[in-house]
Design goal:
It is built from no helices and 26 strands. It is mainly β and about 270 residues long.
Length: about 270
């Protein structure tokens, strides 16, 4: 990039690569510039990847600032299948994200009509897999991540994190300042078939290496039932975590049952698989 970009005159920004199909596979160097005022109106699809970039595959994104990003309609975000949502990218595979700052973002998803739906929400990236790495990135300022379920029962799974919803990546020297709100999750597809949901200040569900990173902010949780993993840093972890801390607090809790390790300031992870 040679200049800052301001998309305030575009009411509905379409992610680079579209909502589903085309992946960005090159190198994008923001050179320290800022992309601001991105508003995305979510679409009705069986699958959605939503962010500045829809999908990254073997890509490198670096030295970029994203400011004033929004993709959320409180009562009209009809994700009916699988949604992957993040300010930078909805989905990433075998990609490097370095020195990216997101400021004043609103990332949200509301699921309707589909009990087999899957949702992955992160302040930076919704879903990241493969030999990926995120380093020296931050979510700062007034940031909100919101998840709502309007199914009469449940969805199959949801992963919500201040930085990444679901992560297999190595994450180093990152921090998050955000508020996470979760509401109306009824976690059963049948009486004996319970689903699982993962919520963390930094990462919802993690299987990568996380080091020298932290998260500060708050959880607002209500009307949630059965098999929830909450953690101040990571909701559920099978990776390696070192040199990290969190200061996530619960600002509002109402009508909660069977939440595993509900957030405390000393709770790094909601659950660890040895």
């Amino acid at each position: 990039m040679k200049n800052d970009l301001d998309f305030s005159e575009i009411n509905d920004f379409e992610p680079i690569g579209g909502f589903q199909s085309t992946s960005f596979k090159g190198t994008f160097d923001g050179c320290g510039h800022t992309i601001s005022n991105i508003n995305i109106i979510p679409q009705i699809h069986s699958k959605n990847s939503v962010g500045l970039f829809a999908n990254l595959d073997g890509a490198t994104i670096k030295n970029l600032n994203i400011k004033n990003f929004s993709t959320y309609l409180p009562n009209g975000t009809y994700y009916i299948g699988e949604s992957k949502v993040g300010a930078l990218a909805g989905n990433a595979n075998n990609s490097i994200v370095e020195n990216v700052t997101c400021e004043n973002i609103l990332v949200g998803s509301s699921v309707f009509y589909n009990p087999s739906a899957k949702a992955y929400l992160g302040g930076l990236v919704g879903y990241i897999t493969g030999e990926s790495k995120i380093s020296h990135c931050c979510i700062k300022g007034n940031n909100n991540i919101i998840f709502r379920n309007y199914n009469t029962k449940s969805i199959e799974t949801s992963h919500v994190g201040g930085l990444v919803g679901y992560s297999e990546a190595d994450i180093e020297s990152c921090y998050v300042e955000c508020n996470i709100s979760v509401n109306r999750i009824r976690n059963y597809l049948a009486e004996t078939n319970y689903t699982k949901q993962y919520f963390g200040g930094l990462i919802g569900k993690n299987s990568g290496n996380v080091t020298q990173s932290y998260a500060v902010g708050s959880f607002d949780v209500s009307n949630c039932y059965q098999f929830f993993y909450f953690g101040g840093l990571v909701g559920y972890n099978t990776g390696l975590i070192s040199n990290t801390f969190n200061n996530f607090i619960l600002v509002h809790v109402e009508d909660i049952t069977n939440a595993w390790s509900l957030v405390r300031s000393e709770s790094i992870v909601g659950s660890v698989l040895a």
